[in-house]
C-alpha cells in the first residue's frame, strides 16, 4: 500500500504525469475494446453459420451418409440458394426457400419454428414477412402458401435474412437439387475445418496489431519515468522498490483502461453489428464475449503491463544518475531472423505439397504455426535488419541529419523499429487479406447477344425426372396463362448415345453433318418457333439442336453452335428445362415465377434468370470470408494509424532532452526534421519489400494449402495499391505531427540542468 501511495504521489506531482496516465488508460481502453470485438466477431461468425446451415445435407456437414426412411422421425429438406443452387428471388432480392416434407405427426424439431409446416403452409422471417405484406400476392406471397408463423432468430443469419420455410409433399421435395432426408436438424459452426482455420488465422492477424498497440501505449512516458525513478534511487530506494513502483504505475492505469475498454466494447457493439455480411447485419446479441474471456482480457492486459514494467525496471538497473543519460540497447543478434525464416518454410511446405499433388498429409495446424512465426518474426527481425542497414548507411551519410539518424538507429534499433512495428504488421495483414481475396472472383452478368447465351431476363428452371407428362403439360398451360407471360419454351435434352441405341441418331447425325461437317453430341433441343422466340435462327428446320453451354451463366466468347434436327431425332429428347419469356416488366417476371412455383410443375430447382444464376454460382461461404477480410483490412489500417501516431509522439516526448540539447547547440529545426524523417522512414523502408513479399507468400500458402490445391491467388487489383498508399500516408501524417512537436515540445526546461 505504501508503494502504491508513493507511486501515485510521484506520478501525480510529475509535470504532465496525470495526462500520461490518462493517455495510457485511453490507449489500453481502445486496445481492449478492439480485442474483445475481434473475439466477439469470431464467435459470431460461427454462430451465424450454425444458424444458417441446418438445412444442408448431412453428408456435407458430417461427411457421412445415414440410411434413413421417411416417417414420423425423419423429414425431407431441400434448401435453395446454397452451395450454388439457385435461390428464390423477388425484384433482385435473394430469398432462401427451405422446402420441408414432414408427416403430420413429425417429431423432428425445426430450428426457429414451432412445428414442421404441412403442404400449403409456410413460415417467413420478419424481413420476408414485411416484404410479402407490401407486395401483390400473385407476385410473391402466393408462391409460398398460407403463412402460419414467423421464423425466430434461431434460424436466421441476421435481421435482414429473407427466409421461407415451406411445407410440401415428399414427392415434390425429393427430386429437388440438394434434397436430403434428416432425423435431426443442426448446423455447423464452420462449413469445413479449412474455413475454421481461415477464421483463426484471420482473427490472429487482427489481434497482433492490437497487442502491439497495447504494448506501445503502456510504455508512454518511459523516459520521464526513468528520470523520476533515478531520483528515487538517489534518495535510497532499492532497485526492487523502484521496479515495484514501475509495475504499479503501469498496472493501475492499464487496469482502469481495460475496464473502460470493456465498457467501450459494449458501447460500440451496436455500431459493429451494423456491419453487413452476406446481405444481413449481425444481431447485437451475436457480438457476445464469454465472461471469463472478458475478465481474462482485462486482468491479463493489466497484469502483463505490470510484469513488463517490473522486468524492464529490474533489467535496466537504474542507478542514481541513470535517468540523465540515454542508455544503449542490447545489440540484436542474427538469430532474431530464425523465427521469420522458419515461419516461411513451415507455412510454405503444406502449400507446396498440395500444389505438387503429392500424397503426403500435412496437418492444417502447420499453416497456423507458420503464420504466427512469420508475424512474430517480423517484429523480432526488424530491429536487426534496421541496425544492419543503418550501420551501412552511416558510413555513407554526408550530412548531419543522416549521420545522427543512422547512429541513433544503430544505437537504439528496438526503440526506433517499435515506432513503426504497428504499421509493418498492418502492411503485412493488409497484403495477406488483399491477396487472399483474389481467390474469389465475383462474376458479372455476361452482356452477350441471344445467339451466345439464353436472354438474361428469361426465367429458366430444371424439370424433375419421372414426372407425369400430362400433368406437366397442364401445369405449363397454367404458367402460360399468367398475366405478362409471352411464351413458355419447352427444352429437351438430346443424348446422342441414347438416341443412337434407339436407332434415331442417324437422322440427326446426317443433318448435323450437312450443317457443320461433324457429328452431333449431347445438347438441347427446341422447336423452330421456340428457337425464334429465344433469338436463334432455325432456318427451314422444324427443330434445332443447341450446344450445351447455351443455358449456362458464363459467356463463351462466340455464337453458340446450332444444327437443324429432324422431328424423329427430336422426339427422343427428354424434357429437361422450361424457359419462360415475359413482356419484360418486373411484375410480369415475378408473376411468372409465382406461377411456375404454384402450377404443380415437378421441378428440380427454382426458376431463375441468368443474372440470378450468376449470383448463385459463387460459393456463399467464400464470399462471406472475403467480406470479413476487408473488415480485417479496415481494422488493421486504423490500428496502425493509432499506434504509429502514439509511438512517434511518445518517442519525441521521451527525447525532449536530447533534441533540446541539439537545438541548444545551434542545430536548425529543419535538420532535426530531416533526422526524424530518416529515423521513421529507414526502419519501414528496410522491411517494406520483405513484408509485402511475405504477405504474398502467406496468402498463397493459406489459400493453396487449405483448399488442397484447388484454389489459387492472383495479383490484387489497383485497390491494393490504394491501401498501401493509405498506410504510407498515415506514416507521413504521423511525421507531420512530430514536426509540430519539434517546435512546441522542446522548452528550455528540458535542458535547464545542462
From TrEMBL:
Membrane topology qualifier: Multi-pass membrane protein
Keywords: Cell membrane, Membrane, Transmembrane, Transmembrane helix
Transmembrane segments: 21-45, 194-220, 241-267, 287-314, 334-353, 365-386, 415-435, 628-653, 681-706, 718-739
Domain of life: Bacteria
GO cellular component: plasma membrane
Record bears the keyword Repressor: no
Record-annotated ABC3 transporter permease C-terminal domain positions: 203-314, 631-744
Subcellular location: Cell membrane
InterPro entries attached to this UniProt entry: ABC3_permease_C (IPR003838)
Keyword Cell membrane: yes
Chief location of this protein within or outside the cell: membrane
UniProt-recorded name of the protein: ABC3 transporter permease C-terminal domain-containing protein
Species classification: Bacteria, Bacillati, Actinomycetota, Actinomycetes, Micrococcales
